[in-house]
Amino acid sequence: QVQVVESGGGWVQPGGSLRLSCVASGRIFSVHDMAWYRQAPGKQRELVARITSSGSRIYGDSVKGRFTISRDNAKNTIYLQMSSLEPEDTAVYFCRSDTVVIPTYRTVEVWGQGTLVTVSS
Question: How far apart, in whole angstroms, are the C-alpha atoms of residue 28 and residue 105?
Answer without folding.
Answer: 9
